Amino acid sequence: MIKLIVSALIACGALAQTGCAVKSGQSTMGQYVDDSTITARVKKRFAEDPDVAATRINVETMKGTVQLSGFASSDNERARAVQLARSVPDVVDVRNDIIVRAPTQ
């Protein structure tokens, strides 16, 4: 009997943690999935583009608004990252917090 109760408590804990996957500000699990898809698409475009260092630019999405942060080696790279993010379907807006800084040796 105790094993059954412990198993039930573990299952409830797992379900409660899964429900926490929706970030603050996202109203539904569907919105979270949509935002995750947008983020993945933006990152994919960065990885495919030879002018953007995908590993130096962070991407986060909330309700269709993409926020870019991190570092670019030039103004052209910074602008290209914004252009690529805006070209992804379902992107509502792009906030560009990328800092231009020469790469370190």
Can you give a write-up of this model?
- There is one protein chain.
- The chain is an alpha+beta fold.
- It has one domain: 2-Layer Sandwich (Histidine-containing Protein, Chain: A), CATH 3.30.1340.
- The chain has three helices and three strands.
- It has helices at 2-19, 29-48, 75-86, and strands at residues 57-62, 65-72, 93-100.
- Strands 1-2-3 form a three-stranded mixed β-sheet.
- A hairpin with a 2-residue loop joins strand 1 (57-62) and strand 2.
- The protein is globular and about 60 Å long.
- The N and C termini lie far apart (62 Å).
- The relative contact order is 0.14.
- Mean pLDDT is 81; it is low at 14-22.
CATH class term: Alpha Beta
- The count of DSSP E runs of length 2 or more, i.e. the number of strands, is 3
Category from helices, strands and their pairing: alpha+beta
Whole-number count of domains: 1
Fraction of residues in helices?
A: 40-55%
CATH topology: Histidine-containing Protein, Chain: A
